[in-house]
Amino acid sequence: MVSQQDVDPMTQGAAFGASAEPLPPQRGGGTRNLVIGIGIGVAIAVIGTQILGGSSSEPITNAPPAESEASRQAVTVATVQSGTVADVLTVTGTVQPADLLTVTPQIGGLQIREVLVEVGDRVAAGQPLVILDDADLRTQIQQAQAQIDVATAQVAQQRASLAQAQATFNEASTNLNRYQTLQAQGAVSAEELDSRATQAATAREAVGVAQASLASAEATVRSRQSDLERLRTQLTYTVVRAPSPGVVAERPASVGDVSSTGNGVVTLIRGGQLELAAEVPQIQLEQVTLGAPVRVFSSTDRSIQGEGTVQKIEPLVDAATRTARVIIGLPASDRLRSGMFLTADIQISTRTGLTLPASAVLPQPDGTVQVLVLGEDDTAIARLVEIGSRTTPAGATESQVEIVSGVQPGERVIVAGASYVQPGDRVTVADRL
After folding, report:
1. How many other CB atoms are there within 10 angstroms of residue 236's CB atom?
2. What is the C-alpha separation between 231 and 142, in angstroms, rounded?
3. Is 139 helix (H, G, I), strand (E, B) or coil?
4. Which residues pair with 97 in a beta bridge?
5. Which of 46, 145, 298, 412 could bond 77 through an S-S bridge, CB–CB 3.0 to 4.6 Å?
6. If 0-12 CB within 10 Å is exposed, 13-18 middle and 19+ buried, where does residue 77 land?
7. Residue-wise pLDDT tens digits, 206-263
């Protein structure tokens, strides 16, 4: 082995890539110092490069940021479940009063002084509706009262006359009895006895006349009292009252009109009860049964909806339209008005099926229908489904749709927020927020 001290300087220079020419002599070991300086420079360059570019030897890449929970679309889900599905027959009809009641005055010939109600007002039984002018009746009542007073005075007079006639008769009877005794003793003549008998008989007749006059006077008092009661009853008729609770449907009466017992002043919807007269095609009439539940709603006003029942199926079929009227009882509501056009879903049968909220169903441009099923990792999975009947359970705010095929019981389906989610998106269920 050759040591570093044995190597010729020219040979050493060739080994580091220096020129082959001999180096000029250096003072104080110049060649060694040059090599050390070059090494230090190379080291400084390497260290600077590491400081500026980083100490890692791996290549630098721009990795995408990790997905955060907050960046996902928030949704609500519904579980596919088995429930009762109702088959319905959809018909239309017009709202009408269940029972119209025309209120007429019980006394005619009086001017209408005041009308207290307007169309649409709800009234209670006995509530005043119209006031008639009662001035003439009150005058007649005062006159009748005066006549009663006169008749009562006559009764008193006749009673006094009767008492006087009775006293005269008693006195005549006493005298007759005494004269009969005296005549038997021969103290008086037969002519005097006859005279006393005639006086007694005349007094008896006077008592009878007085009794008849008293009875006539008392009858007159009763007649005057009857007239007074009749007038007082007629006075109560000047206030036309509601015979039953209801809603004012019509109010033809006006102030200044003259009342007539043949003309109504107010028309009431008895009890405010309305009904829907729906037209049902003849071929579907047999599907409708009395008492069947009905969902009634307006296609133009979502706030108008309620539950009713089939109350009557009219027996006649219209020969022109081949339809029959079905009467559906409606619940009391301040939003319903007679004459409204409404739609009715008459329940004709029920069965068991899978249901979902209607808002979970997403119609597609090609005519198909899909739902977004939630996977185990909260990923939205598009699923084509076939839908059946649509119904709104009593008290529910959203319709339910029958799912004939495409999902299984227990699967979770996106409801609220479904229209903002694309298949493959990961979502956040709202109850986890």
Report:
1. 12
2. 10
3. helix
4. 274
5. 412
6. buried
7. 999 999 999 999 999 999 999 999 999 999 999 999 999 999 999 999 999 999 999 9
Which amino acid appears at position 307 of this protein? E
Using DSSP's 3-state secondary structure scheme, residue 204 falls into helix
Looking up tokens 């007759």 gives: 176
What's the pLDDT tens digit per position in 386-425?
Answer: 777 777 655 555 677 778 887 778 888 888 877 777 787 7
Q: Which candidate, 305, 292, 323, 327, places its Cα nearest to that of 96?
A: 327
Query: C-alpha angle 218/220/224, rounded to 5°?
Result: 120
Report the distance separating Cα 160 and Cα 18, nearest Å. 176
Query: Counting Cβ atoms within 10 Å, is residue 234 exposed (0-12), middle (13-18) or buried (19+)?
Result: middle
Give this prediction's pTM.
Answer: 0.58
Rounded Cα distance, 386 and 253, in Å: 60
Residue entry with tokens 């190379």: 42
Closest CA to 411 of 373, 380, 379, 370: 373
Nearest in space to 198 (alpha carbons), one of 216, 175, 222: 175
Question: How far apart, in Å, are the Cα atoms of 312 and each of 70, 276, 309, 337?
Answer: 58, 11, 9, 20
Rounded-to-integer distance, Cα 86 and Cα 390, Å = 8
Rounded to the nearest 10 degrees, the angle between the axes of helix 190-237 and helix 135-185 is 170
Distance between CA atoms of residues 372 and 388, nearest Å: 18
Count of CB atoms within 10 A of residue 402's CB? 19
